[in-house]
Amino acid sequence: MAKRDNIFLVGLMGAGKTTVGRQLARQLNLVFHDADQELEERTGVRIPVIFDIEGEAGFRAREEAVIHELCRLEGIVLATGGGAVLSAANRAALKNNGVVVYLRGSPEQLYERTRHDRNRPLLQTADPLARLRELYAQRDLYYREVADVVVDTGRQSAVHLTRVLREKLDALDSAAAGSAQG
Question: Which of 61, 102, 121, 139 meets the CB 3.0–4.6 Å disulfide criterion with 147?
Fold first, then answer.
């Protein structure tokens, strides 16, 4: 399997992993998977319920199992949960089984996108923006470590983001083809 056969999207909540992932999969004729949605389907409950019952540690253990299973598939675009990179095992699985794309947005931009979403347990605090800043500080290094490509989300539309991402992926393919010939 060529590494490009799978594309894995990482980044904080609200970065556009699911939206961009769906568009990218459609354009590249790949199958789209969302790790959080897979987890909800398997457990039969929403993620906040898993957090309430099992805590973050229980959720992360379930998430790791789902990601490892999905990484074994071929021809997919996978939107990971924002905290998936906290696990060294997840980082290795992602890095070794596909091209990893970090959709990077500032905490302020991500707050604007997520502030009305009640399905984000880590943001159910008195100061969600401060929490996003904390998560960014904690996770940005992991996202960069695992990423083959970084795309700044900014205030771009999902259509524009997908186009930029495709250009970066094509450039990555060209560079790989050039080094394979040399």
Answer: 102
CATH number of the structural domain spanning residue 65: 3.40.50.300
Domain that holds residue 30: 3-175
For residue 9, list its beta bridge partners. Answer: 79, 101
Beta bridge partners of 15: none
For the chain, how many structural domains are there in total? 1
